[in-house]
Specification:
The complex is a heterotrimer of chains A (233), B (263) and C (246). By secondary structure, chain A is an alpha+beta fold. Chain A has 6 helices and 16 strands. Chain B is α+β, with helices and mostly antiparallel strands and 263 residues long. Chain B has one domain: GHMP Kinase, N-terminal domain (Ribosomal Protein S5, domain 2). Chain B starts with a helix and ends with a helix. In chain C, the strands form 2 sheets. Chain C has a 5-stranded mixed β-sheet with strand order 1-2-3-5-4. A 4-stranded antiparallel β-sheet of chain C has the order 7-6-8-9. In chain C, helix 1 links the parallel strand 4 and strand 5. In chain C, helix 1 packs across helix 2 and helix 2 runs parallel beside helix 4. The longest helix of chain C is centred in the C-terminal third of the chain and has 39 residues. Chain C is globular. The C terminus of chain C is likely disordered. Classes of the chains: A alpha+beta (233), B alpha+beta (263), C alpha+beta (246). The interface between B and C is large, with 41 and 37 residues. Strand 13 of chain B pairs antiparallel with strand 9 of chain C, so a sheet runs across the interface.
């Protein structure tokens, strides 16, 4: 039951990863008893499971994901939201107004209009229906301030870090609130623009160096140095 | 295709083929019965109608004079066009030829052209200036599967049926004389299409089978048994071994078809 | 119809450009060359110069072209007016329409279309210079563009033609050989599944020669496949290296 690559080795679609009693994990597929890569990425053999950490992918909605989207259109009973995925999401008026929606009284564009940003959660999605969003939980809803950062969605897990270690460290060091949309959009809100810039710089650095080791230590060091510089000025 | 009824049907076709039988009682290598009638359109220089199963195709040949292509000044011109007339299937729509019609015309064209079926060298009137232009127009009247084979058979039948006007040149002008001579031909290619369903090869797929099959391969053969045109179609694939098997199957089918044809 | 007087093989059995019968033209590939496309690739195959760009998967427009059970791949193969000796009208010809279709059919087996219902991927192929074998070179580049767009794939599709020149089976015909030669057999291939996804032929071959040509084309495909893999790895290795150096 051989495997054909080392952990973290670069693979491309069609590369034979393992043969025998293995499970096909993320970004792989099984043909008879052979497991092949289906995306460009880094091999990751975990026990009997073979994964690829993709270097290139698009966001695919999953129920429960927090995403950040842009209002695309105002409709009769809700909005369509661009969440940078193959499917446009829907946000129903009744979800936002938290009561039944009355077309004769409610002017939807006064609540949310084209170009507005929202933080939302994927409430439902399946093969036959476009993803439906909800904002009915604390911390979700229209974004009114802060900075937005876009990155490829495959890198969000690195920003989160092991058990959230990376992101809580950045929050502590910069004093910013950070919301990571799993669709690759990040919202950073801090007390001052300086704080926000610091957080943006740290996250950009993670994105650029996402597949190197010892990243958490390096980012901690980077933030401490930058903060020291800021204080001197 | 996603309705319950057709899903059941698709499964039936697959299961039946798995056992080496088809829903219309054919074996995997049986060709459907066909009937060809020539000279059905009096106004055309040549014509033929084919009935292959319920697939019905009418081909008309018109011969006019025109200019040769600059790179072949001494050869007549052959053009093949196909129309999937909307009355032939609910899936066909009016308008300019789509992808399917263009592919059909070009595959038939390739078989005729590459076999050298029409002796275009004999269609030259005046080198570089005037030649005969042969228009082959394929009209699909009913779609019951395997349009490529049916269109190819009907086209050759119509070309065999075609007559050229007699002419003479008087003071640089063409004067049409009485009577006709047959269109000069050198070969009679036959095309056979093989479909693939769950790794089984079937000859002459019908309409329902086309819905199930993941790919097809069409091969045209000359009278001396050479391959002169090939086209793989559909979203699936063939392995090398399947390709070789399909070639043999197509060749033997062409041989048995030739026995039925009166060419 | 075909001018058989041009000699395509010299006394030593070498071809017009000095190649042996089973020798490929040089193939260069680059991935990720279009900033606005989701995935892209550029190929120089002999004198062919071709760009492929992929957009999607994204919402399929117009809506009636959506398929409830799968992703739709749309493909446009197009030749620039200046790509051939005599200016080509920019309007798509029947030839381009047919090639667009067979290229699409050659790439579909590599994609998991059933995983992305109601979406569409648009693939645009522009031939900047043509010198025989453009459909094969287009497929080789287009498949890389799809991989670069992050689409899950069974394998990278690669394509190469074989044909017959002066009575001999030869690999990878260039324009003159294609026009004057006896036959051309373009083949697209997925190496790890031994799957032929494009197969066409025009000319005249015995069934034995046809089989020989298909096999030779597959060998050519395997060689180009290695160049393809290298090109894809190169783009993503560059990213990795930059990161390590810092």
């Amino acid at each position: 039951m051989p495997t054909f690559f080392e952990n973290k080795q670069l693979v491309i679609p069609g590369d034979l990863l393992a043969e025998g009693e293995y499970f096909a994990g993320n970004n792989t597929y099984k043909e008879e008893n052979k497991i092949y890569a289906s995306r460009i990425g880094l091999a990751d053999y975990a026990n009997k499971k073979v994964n690829i950490v993709a270097l290139r992918a698009f966001y695919f909605p999953k129920v429960g994901d927090v995403v950040i989207g842009t209002v695309k259109e105002v409709g009769f009973s809700g909005w369509t939201i661009n969440i940078k995925s193959p499917y446009t999401a829907i946000l129903r008026a009744s979800d936002v107004l938290s009561r039944s929606f009355k077309p004769q009284n409610d002017e939807l564009s006064q609540v949310l209009t084209t170009g507005d940003l929202i933080v939302a959660k994927v409430a439902s999605y399946d093969r036959f229906h476009d993803p439906q969003l909800t904002v009915g939980e604390p911390g979700l809803g229209k974004i009114t301030k802060g900075q937005i950062l876009n990155m490829t969605p495959t890198k969000i897990p690195r920003v989160i870090g092991r058990q959230g270690s990376m992101i809580s460290m950045i929050k502590n060091e910069t004093g910013c609130q950070i919301i990571l949309g799993l669709n690759g959009t990040v919202l950073i809100t801090g007390k001052t623009p300086k704080n926000e810039e610091l957080a943006v710089a740290a996250i950009t650095k993670i994105e650029e160096e996402s597949h190197t080791s010892g990243l958490t230590d390096r980012i901690t060091k980077f933030l401490k140095e930058e903060k020291a510089k800021m204080e001197k000025k | 295709m996603s309705s319950l009824l057709t899903r059941v049907k698709l499964k039936q076709i697959e299961q039946s083929i798995e056992k080496g039988q088809r829903l219309d009682k054919r074996t995997l290598s049986d060709y459907r019965d066909f009937k060809i009638e020539q000279g059905v359109i009096e106004k055309a220089e040549g014509s033929a109608r084919i009935l292959l199963g319920k697939t019905e195709i009418l081909v008309g040949v018109k011969i006019e004079t025109g200019k040769p292509f600059p790179d072949t000044p001494d050869n007549g011109v052959l053009t093949v066009n196909a129309e999937l007339v909307p009355l032939a299937s609910a899936k066909f729509e009016p308008g300019p030829p789509g992808e399917q019609a263009i592919e059909l015309a070009r595959v038939v064209d390739r078989g005729i052209r590459e076999s050298g079926a029409v002796d275009t060298a004999k269609l030259c009137i005046e080198s570089g200036k005037k030649v005969f232009v042969v228009f082959v127009d394929i009209y699909v009247l009913n779609h019951d599967g395997n349009l490529i084979d049916a269109a190819a058979l009907a086209s050759i039948s119509a070309l065999i049926n075609a007559k050229m006007p007699n002419y003479e040149i008087v003071d640089d002008k063409i004067v049409i004389k009485q009577g006709y001579t047959p269109l000069p031909m050198k070969d009679h290619p036959v095309t056979v299409t093989i479909g693939k369903i769950n790794d089984k090869l079937i000859v002459d797929p019908g309409l329902d089978e086309e819905d199930v099959m993941d790919s097809r391969i069409s091969m045209a053969f000359t009278e001396d048994g050479n391959v002169c045109a090939v086209q793989k179609g559909g979203a699936g694939y063939f392995t090398l071994e399947q390709t070789i098997e399909a070639t043999k199957l197509a060749q033997s089918t062409v041989e048995s078809l030739r026995k039925k044809l009166k060419w | 119809m075909k001018d058989k007087t041009i000699k395509l093989l010299n006394k030593k059995g070498l071809r017009l450009d000095g190649r042996k019968l089973d020798e490929l033209r040089s193939v260069k590939l680059e991935v990720g060359i279009l900033p606005n496309a989701d995935g892209s690739a550029y190929i120089e195959h002999g004198k062919n110069k071709i760009i492929a760009g992929a957009f999607g998967p994204r919402e399929m427009h117009p809506k009636h072209l959506q398929r409830a059970d799968r992703m739709v791949l749309r493909c446009r193969y197009h030749m620039a007016p200046f790509s051939v000796p005599e200016r080509k009208s920019p309007a798509p010809s029947r030839r381009e329409n047919e090639i667009s279709k067979v290229i699409r059919d050659s790439l579909l087996p590599s994609l998991f279309v059933e995983n992305y219902p109601r979406t569409g991927v648009d693939l645009y192929i522009e031939v900047l210079q043509a010198d025989g074998g453009t459909r094969c070179a287009s497929i080789t580049a287009a498949s890389l563009a799809l991989a670069d767009a992050g689409l899950p794939m069974r394998d990278i599709v690669v394509a190469c033609a074989a044909g017959k020149v002066n009575g001999k089976i030869a690999l990878d015909l260039m324009d003159t050989e294609d026009k004057v030669g006896d036959a051309d057999v373009p083949v697209a291939y997925m190496p790890n599944l031994n799957a032929i996804t494009l197969l066409q032929m025009d000319g005249k071959l015995s069934t034995k020669e046809f089989e020989e040509a298909v096999k030779m084309a597959i060998e050519g495909c395997k060689k180009i496949s290695n160049i393809q893999k290298e090109a894809l790895q190169t783009k993503y290795k560059v990213i990795k290296q930059e990161e390590v150096e810092e």
